[in-house]
Specification:
Length: 154
């Protein structure tokens, strides 16, 4: 193969896919474009209920809303609790204790977008747990807190 024959097509598609007829590619591209244009643009890849299920499975027990409420509202050896920034209850806009930045409500019934992006949820649980409990939260703690947050606003 000469360098002039080498293209991005060869880099981006596995061998079996490169062998598809051009008509199949056109059909697939047309279908993908029509689906893309018909769907609303959202970054969501999950839901609060799916996150609760994930952490419940990881912890080996279902999330407990009562335990989640206690965890959310309690300080854990430091000066902050989850409620310090997210409010008590977390159905209204919160305010970051250090920066003063507004934080959208954490209750999914009030803010349906919360807990719908797995990477974002994992990032913020990791950061916030380190601020509040000086470590990452366990799957059980995450399940309990989310069970509590899902119980709000119903």
């Amino acid at each position: 193969m000469h360098l002039r024959d080498f293209s991005l097509v060869h880099l981006s598609r596995p061998t079996s896919v490169r062998k598809l007829a051009p008509g199949v590619w056109a059909l697939a591209l047309t279908a993908a474009l029509s689906l893309t244009l018909a769907l609303p643009v959202v970054a969501a890849d999950t839901s609060a209920a799916a996150q609760l299920a994930r952490w419940s499975v990881a912890s080996g027990k279902p999330g407990d809303a009562a335990q989640g409420e206690v965890f959310f509202n309690s300080t854990h050896g430091d000066k902050w609790s989850c409620a310090t920034c997210h409010g008590k209850p977390a159905t209204a806009t919160g305010k970051h204790a250090s920066t003063g930045k507004a934080i959208k409500p954490m209750a999914p019934a009030v803010n349906p977008e919360v807990f719908t992006d797995t990477a974002n949820v994992d990032k913020w649980f990791r950061r916030n747990c380190k601020d509040v409990v000086s470590r990452e939260c366990s799957p059980s703690e995450k399940a309990d807190v989310l069970a509590y947050l899902l119980s709000l606003g119903r």
